Amino acid sequence: MTKSAEGFARVAREVFAPIYPVIAEQALAWSGIRDGIALDIGSGPGLLSVALAERSNLSVIALDADPAMSRIARTSAAGCAGRVIPVTGDVHCMPVRDDTVSIAVSRGSIYFWEDRARAFSEIERILRPGGVAYVGGSFGTPELREAIFTEMRRRNPNWDQDVARRSGRATPDTLRREVAESGVLHARIREEEEGMWVEIRKGAISPRAR
Predict the structure, then answer these.
(1) Which residues pair with 78 in a beta bridge?
(2) Nearest CA to 109 among 155, 188, 44?
(3) Count of beta carbons in the 10 Å neighbourhood of residue 90
(4) Could you say which DSSP state residue 44 is in?
(5) Domain named Methyltransferase type: which ranges (predicted)?
(6) Burial of 25: CB neighbours in 10 Å, binned 0-12, 13-18, 19+
(7) Is residue 157 predicted with pLDDT exceeding 60?
(8) Could you tell me the CA-to-CA distances from 18 to 22, 23, 59, 115, 144 in Å, in that order?
(9) Of 6, 50, 78, 151, whose CA is between 20 and 30 Å from 203?
(10) CA atoms of 184 and 131, how far apart (whole Å)
(11) Percent over 70 (pLDDT), the chain
(12) CA–CA dist 100, 37 (Å, integer)
C-alpha cells in the first residue's frame, strides 16, 4: 500500500468524512434513483461509496485507478454486506459494460482526469437508459465547505493556492467546452455555492441503439 494512498485516506476520514453522506443524499434526491448499480468514480478510500450503499438499495462499484486505494476501500466497505465492490480501473476506459449503471457519482477526481471529453463520453457509455451521473467537486454545504477549508488551511498553508490551481483547470466554461467535444447528448453544469457538478443524463433510448 503506497504512502500517498494512506495519507489521502487519512485526510478523507479525518477532514472530509462529513461531506460524503450529504453528497450521497443530494445525488439520490436529484436523480430519484435508489435501486440498481451505482458507480463511484475515483472512489479513493470508498467513503462516498459506503454512504450511497447505506442510503439506498444500490450495489456500488468503487472505481479507482490506484490499486492501493481499492484495498483501502475494501476495508471501508467491510460493513456493507458485499454491496460495495472495489474495482481498479481508469475513467477513460472503465471495465464496465455499456448501459448498466443507474447512477454514477464522482467527487473531486474530475480535476485530475487527463482527457475529460473522453471521460464524459465513457461515462455516458456505461449509463443505462434513464441513468444519470454527477461529477464535480462539491463540499456538500457551505458550512461544511468552510469547516473543511479552515482545517485544511491549518494542515496545509498552501491550501487556497492548491484549490485555485485545481479549480482553474476545470472552470464552468472549460467544462462546457469539453462536454461539447465529448459528444454527450444531455449534459449541463450545476453551479452552487458549495461546489459544481457536471450532470450527464442518458436518454430513454441508447444512442447506440438508434
Answers:
(1) none
(2) 44
(3) 16
(4) T
(5) 39-134
(6) middle
(7) yes
(8) 7, 9, 22, 30, 8
(9) 50
(10) 13
(11) 95
(12) 7
Task: Identify the residue whose cell numbers are 450511497.
Answer: 52
Buried b (16+ CB within 10 A) or exposed e, 185-202: eebeeeeeebbbbbbbbb
> What is the pTM assigned to this prediction?
0.93
Cα–Cα distance, 205 to 186 (Å, whole number): 12
The average pLDDT across 74-101 equals 95
Residue 23: name the closest of 55, 45, 1 by CA.
55
Q: Which grid cell is 108?
A: 473531486
Q: What is the pLDDT of residue 34?
A: 96
Please, what are the domains in the chain?
A: 5-202 (3.40.50.150)
pLDDT at 208: 41
Amino acid symbol at 127 = L
Grid coordinates in use for 30? 436529484
pLDDT band at 169 (very low <50, low <70, confident <90, very high): confident
